[in-house]
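Appendix B. Chain record.
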Amino acid sequence: MIIPVILSGGSGTRLWPVSTTERPKQFQPMVGAQSMFRQTIARVADRAIFAPPVIVCGEGHAPLVAQDLAAEGVGDARILIEPAARNTAPAIALAAHLAGDAPMLVMPSDHVMTKPAALVGAVRDAQPIVASGALATFGIRPTRPETGYGYIAAGAALTETLERVARFVEKPPRDKAEAMLAAGGHYWNAGIFLMRGDAYLNELARQRGDIAAAVAQSFANLTRDGAMLRPDAAAFLACPSESIDYAVMEGAENLVVAAVDPGWSDVGGWEAMHTLLPQDAAGNASVGDVLAIDAKGNLLRADAGKRLSVLGIDNLVVIATGDDILILPRERAQEVKQIAEARKKP
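Structure tokens predicted for this chain:
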């Protein structure tokens, strides 16, 4: 049985003001009627394939996790509470101690997949090689020369669906992204992995013994409160902060990539939301009670209790939610993080 490990520590500041520190984007219905966390849990609901999930989150989001799990009818999940944010390598190591020699499917909780069955099929294809100790990552087949994602360059083919990983490529400039798309053999890095818990811990210990030791000590002294598992705070706070890509994947000795097209998006900002949502004939993507006259190419969102009307505007993001209103050009949507940070200041 594969143990789903759902990482739910992101803050989603590029989708402010809907996504906030208190309720980040994974707990919001950004695309569809259910929160992205619930959609993620639904992808791994088949108990013929998947064991009860393990959720890794912070203390402040544990009630939201429990609420969404209950709404999905999942009563046997385990919730690992991180004492502090230390990026993905330590978070996954905590879950790996729970998994032992079982395979774990590591997934972010804030992504959208319109064809989740494609991922499940790729996971099943990768199971045999993962059982032998390999680490597998899932590369999204690129549809455009995207500069906002990292890439995985594939090496030698192992099977019809699996290839060795040649190298990881940082977020590229436009010309390099176009060249990789034309050349083929390059995939978007979605941060989704299948690996045995012990295989991951062995690689972590080989490459980053400091992280491995701190997490092991923290896990050894965890306390249990029903489904809530709380690792020792002092040991975890001493752990360096590092991503799984830098700590493990880029230096892994037995790493493969499975190419997949699950209709994936990381919903990284309002520009991505404009792409994901249905659009009218003028290219406006609207959510809620919205009226658009002589307007084109806009993303318009009015949350509960708000009515949003626009006239004569093009290619803007206009969001009305709670006490906040956001207006900015779509082409500068990634800069909304600056506003989110400024609004935190007294």
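Further analysis of this model is presented in Appendix C.
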